[in-house]
Specification:
- By secondary structure, the protein is of the alpha+beta class.
- It has three domains: 3-237 and 401-453, BirA Bifunctional Protein, domain 2, CATH 3.30.930.10; 254-381, Alpha-Beta Complex (YbaK protein), CATH 3.90.960.10; 470-571, Anticodon-binding domain (Rossmann fold).
- 28% of the residues lie in helices and 28% in strands.
- It is built from 15 helices and 31 strands.
- Strands 3, 7, 8, 9, 10, 11, 12, 21 and 24 form a nine-stranded mixed beta sheet that branches. A five-stranded mixed beta sheet has the order 16-14-15-17-20.
- Strand 11 and strand 12 form a beta hairpin.
- Helix 1 (21-28) packs across helix 11, helix 2 (44-63) packs across helix 11 and helix 12 packs parallel to helix 15 (554-572).
- Bound molecules: adenosine-5'-triphosphate (ATP) and magnesium ion (MG).
- The site of adenosine-5'-triphosphate has 15 residues, from strand 8, strand 21, strand 24 and helix 11.
């Protein structure tokens, strides 16, 4: 491709709307442009990168035995009513009516459509296993679309769905997909980690998220320093607490004035105790109803665990006014004794004795409080976030907390959708059975953004070779000089003949701009044909990732670099 003809509008300034580095660089490097909130156009380089990721995804899905299809984006409401998700999915589902008044939605995911397709076509165990995938535009009306391609409303996803005759076969398919995902992200040249993920109301231990490791990630990963345990914070548990060996005598309940002390830090300082001796009472709105959650003063609630415990659709923290409306107690003095709303406790609280809680009265706390004697709770469960002080639930070693970006999610669905949508087949005994399903997503456009979050410097993007829009950029520093131009053009043509993705910067621009733009758009190999070619007949080769520079005579450049690129691409596989 010739830079002079390419739509590649790079920007010197960072657009104010962008907060995270991938969004800033995708805009500055001329890869994407915003049309409206969470909706983007892909310019030629953005599309080229996207296509590279797609190609790797396709190859690995096909290798894993999956077949590509393309499903409709517009989905009729009745399928979603049949699965029960029309009411459950919430406002992320963009719904509309056609001219006949029929309700439809734009597909945020395709379980309903694929199950309908398969139930109509596959009636016998002979048609199974079946694993179908597509790479397609999804629409989710995200409450906070942000960070460019990281969380769009319209985005590109690879979604796959498997159908097996038995749980055992479905387990094998899941493992095959797990392996395929490993291959996809390794081949993309990314540092990533597969972690156990929350399975929501479906339950079971069969969900993994693939996380690109980056400090800017929205997710926190809990990784054991010793064994293979790795989980998303939503799912991660700590080693279970153990009751102290010695009996602790229960002290008489007391009330103490704590004037103006509302925060854990202030109360514990005032009373001369540690946060481990205090139980805080947090109020959440669980599907609109207030629920109090008790947990140790130094711990935090993990809302997804609360949501799963109560089988809720939506959980959010109540604000001060909502707490007061529900309990009549001002924030900071809430406690479980005599509380009229539902109360649940984190499992650590169940082992605590003689602790401090709010007294449900302004400026007062209760001392020597004990669960079972002074109040009861509806449920005790693991409801908190793991911290760096916790130990691995599997081996007891220390845990590491690190940030990641979710780029893939695989999930063992079981019979949830085949039962809801009546997806059945006859097994080899002639018995009617429901398919055992799995689903497998990759955020293709988010992977592009994540690769930049992980790989960039102050000058711009540093693309891993396998997903760079071009592998090589040839800078012609003197387009008006015949000798230099002839050499640059020769390189360009020869690379093309070798099947290398090459960009030639043939613009009538100052060398400084060419260097800057080459760095900004992140092309792995930069070749410079300029003064040293005119003088000594050599071309400078610079690696974007580490700035390593070498020079070669013109004739050696293409064979040498083509071989290097082939070796590098083979090595990541
Ligand atoms: P998240 O928790 O980030 O909202 P999700 O659990 O809703 O993700 P899935 O339904 O599992 O995501 O979708 C599969 C993949 O699609 C995700 O792993 C992610 O990479 C990508 N994805 C999901 N939502 C978006 C979005 N709004 N913009 C870009 N990519 C997305
Ligand atoms: Mg989501």
């Amino acid at each position: 491709m010739r830079y002079s003809q390419l739509l590649l509008p790079t920007l010197k300034e960072t657009p104010a709307e962008a907060e995270v580095v991938s969004h800033k660089l995708l805009l500055r490097a001329g890869f994407i442009r915003k049309i409206t909130s969470g909706v983007y156009s892909y310019l030629p380089l953005g599309l080229a990168t996207l296509r590279k990721v797609e190609k790797i995804v396709r190859e690995e899905m096909n290798n894993g035995g999956a077949q590509e299809v393309l499903l409709p984006m517009v989905q009729p409401a009745d399928l979603w009513q049949e699965s029960g998700r029309w009411d459950k999915y919430g406002p992320e589902l963009l719904r509309f009516k056609d001219r006949h008044g029929r309700e439809s939605c734009l597909g945020p995911t395709h379980e309903e459509v694929i199950t309908t397709l398969v139930r109509r076509e596959v009636h016998s165990y002979r048609g199974l296993p079946l694993n179908l995938y597509q790479i397609q535009t999804k629409f989710r009306d995200e409450i906070r679309p942000r960070f460019g391609l990281m969380r769009g409303r319209e985005f590109i996803m690879k979604d796959g769905y498997s159908f097996d005759a038995t749980e055992e076969d479905a387990g094998k398919t899941y493992e095959t997909m797990h392996y395929a995902y490993h291959r996809v992200f390794s081949r993309c040249g990314l540092k990533f980690r597969a972690v156990e993920a929350d399975t929501g109301t479906i339950g079971g231990n069969f969900s993994h998220e693939f996380m690109v490791l980056a400090d800017t990630g929205e997710d926190t990963l809990v990784i054991c320093k010793k064994c293979t345990y790795a989980a998303n914070m939503e799912k991660a548990t700590a080693m279970a607490p153990v009751a102290p060996v010695e009996e602790v005598a229960l002290l008489p309940l007391a009330k103490k004035e704590t004037p103006g002390k509302r925060k854990v830090g202030a109360v514990t300082e005032f009373l001369g105790i540690t946060a481990q001796e205090l139980v805080k009472t947090m109020v959440y709105l669980v599907d609109g109803q207030p629920v109090a959650v008790l947990l140790r003063g130094d711990h935090e609630v993990q809302p997804v665990k609360l949501k799963n415990l109560l089988g809720a659709v939506e959980v959010e923290m109540a604000d001060d006014k909502q707490v007061f409306d529900a309990t009549g107690v001002p924030t900071g003095y809430l406690g479980p004794i005599g509380l009229k709303i539902r109360v649940v406790a984190d499992r650590e609280v169940a082992l605590m004795k003689n602790f401090v809680v709010g007294a449900n009265e302004k400026n007062f706390h209760s001392l020597n409080v004990n669960l079972g004697r002074d109040f009861e709770v509806e449920d005790v469960a693991d409801l908190r976030m793991v911290t760096e002080d916790d130990r691995c639930p599997v081996c007891g070693a220390e845990l590491n907390l690190t940030r990641g970006i979710e780029v893939g999610h695989i999930f063992k669905l079981g019979k949830t959708y085949s039962q809801a949508l009546n997806g059945v087949f006859l097994d080899n005994q002639g018995q009617e059975q429901h398919y055992v399903m799995g689903c497998y997503g990759i955020g293709v456009s988010r992977t592009v953004a994540a690769s930049i979050e992980q790989n960039h410097d102050k000058d711009g993007i540093i693309f891993p070779l396998p997903i760079a829009p071009f592998q090589v950029v040839v800078l012609n520093l003197s387009p008006n000089d015949e000798v230099i131009t002839a050499a640059a053009e020769k390189l360009y043509l020869e690379f093309k003949q070798q099947g290398v993705d090459v960009l030639i910067d043939d613009r009538d621009e100052r060398p400084g701009s060419k260097f800057k733009d080459a760095d900004l758009i992140g092309i792995p190999y930069r070749l410079t044909v300029g003064k040293s070619f005119a003088k000594e007949g050599v071309v400078e080769i610079r690696k974007r990732v580490d700035g390593e520079t070498s020079s070669l005579p013109l004739a050696e450049v293409v064979p040498d670099l083509t071989a290097r690129i082939r070796t590098e691409l083979a090595a990541v596989v």
